[in-house]
Amino acid sequence: MSTYAATQDNTRIQSVKTVAFASLIGTAIEWYDFFIYGTLSAIVFNKLFFPANDPVVSVMLAYATFAVGFVVRPIGGIVIGHFGDRIGRKPLLVLTLSLMGVATFLIGLLPTYAQIGIAAPMMLLGLRVVQGLAMGGEWGGAVLMAFEYSDRDTRAQYACYPQIGLAIGLCLASGIITLLSVSMDDAAFLAWGWRIAFLLSVVLLAVGMFIRLKILETPEFLRAKESMKIAKAPILEVLRDYKSDILLGWGARLIDGIVFAIYAIYSVGFLVSAAKMPRTTVLSAITLAALALAVTIPFASIWADRVGKRKLYIWFSLICGIAGFPMLWLMQYSGSSFWASAAIVFALGIIYAPVYGPQAAIFCEMFDTPVRFTGISIVYQIGAILSVSITPLVATALFSYGGNTPWLIASYMLAAGVLSAISVGLMRKPY
Fold it and tell me: Which residues of 381-406 are buried (b: 16+ CB within 10 A; e: fewer)?
């Protein structure tokens, strides 16, 4: 290799690492903002914004507003994806981070139901909608920045960086809430302590904006732009040419979203009420699982580049589905906080990584460059509605219908694993 070629190759490697890191930091901040809402839904918002005589009703109302954030994500994905495919990836990433940061900060300033009545949950719902719209465009743009800088043999390795951002964002969210919970009593936390988690987002926003403003547009988009291959109406082209790909992508997304929602969101209320575990213990377990996930995702993604992204996804979709039975048994019936916590760490921090890590590259390879932002946003965000958003509600209903036992929830997870494995197996040759 010539000195020039070697220098160019080193520059490209350095560039993709810089872009991947920028994608990771920005996505971590966005997920932090998104997750603190989900974490606090069943322990704060049900009491302060959705008071009801029946505690189950108040929790389900709080979870419903959590779900709203997912319902509007496809709208954000389509709108932001349209402009991301038309004018570029970078400017839309700056916009999504700004929207998310401001909405999260304002949630920390909201008056409660006791102070202003029905206006409180309405304002909370409005800000949750803004969060959802921003998150709808964030993931697709962040993944594409890393994916479109990488070469064919390292796509999973670099496209997984925004996935690592999810783990870091979850770790930050659960870690901050755990720290606030142990540093004050329940009354103080409910009165004002929870607000700190939201107000801190303004600091994270400043850091994220500084980093994102320094990165450049992706080479693949610039090549498409120079060759006049920019799609005039990306959403129409995706719906016309990629219908089967979208359906299979939604199927593949099931196990990812359901496993994540069970262990990272539903487990908080589930273990506190069903297993009588302290809230701080559950949050600590989720934080530890997120830390583990931040380490296991890159290793799983490198493994995926070597053995095949889709092959790994299929096997671990089935493994995650089957694992629901022993993991939920440990969580509810072991009688041990250690074993319940270990179940969360193992399920979310280890065996989930070979599914979530390679997923970004798998979805990107389903679509050609001119419509890729729109395509992956539709798959990921509508897939989230079908999996993550409704799972806390479904799990709550299945637990009650199953006589306060977890077996219907575990069966739900197994069915998702089988459907996801079949969907990935049926995907056509990657672009």
Answer: bbbbbbbbbbbbbbbbebbeeeeebb
What is the tens place of the pLDDT at every residue in 194-243? 898 888 888 877 877 777 777 766 666 677 667 666 767 788 888 899 99
* Cβ–Cβ < 8 Å for 281, 174: no
pLDDT at 341: 92
Side chain identity at residue 28, one-letter code: A
Contact in structure between 218 and 145 (CB atoms under 8 Å): yes
Residue 14 has pLDDT above 50, yes or no: no
Q: Computed from CA positions of residues 68, 72, 77, 83, in that sequence, does the dihedral angle turn out positive or negative? A: negative
Give the domains, in start order, of the chain with CATH numbers.
13-219+236-425 (1.20.1250.20)
- Under a CB-based contact definition with an 8 Å cutoff, are residues 49 and 188 in contact? no
Instruction: For the chain, give the mean pLDDT.
Output: 83
Tens digits of residue pLDDT in 356-402: 999 999 999 999 888 888 899 899 888 888 888 788 889 989 988 88
93-143 per-position pLDDT tens digit: 788 888 888 888 898 899 988 888 878 888 888 888 888 888 888 888 888
Q: Which residue has the tokens 């409005």?
A: 126
Q: How far apart are CA 41 and CA 243, in angstroms?
A: 35
The closest of 366, 138, 77, 82 to 248, measured between CA atoms, is 366
pLDDT for the residue numbered 346:
96
In terms of C-beta density within 10 A (0-12 exposed, 13-18 middle, 19 or more buried), how is residue 328 classed? buried
Average pLDDT (139-150) is 80
Report the percent of the chain where pLDDT is more than 70: 88
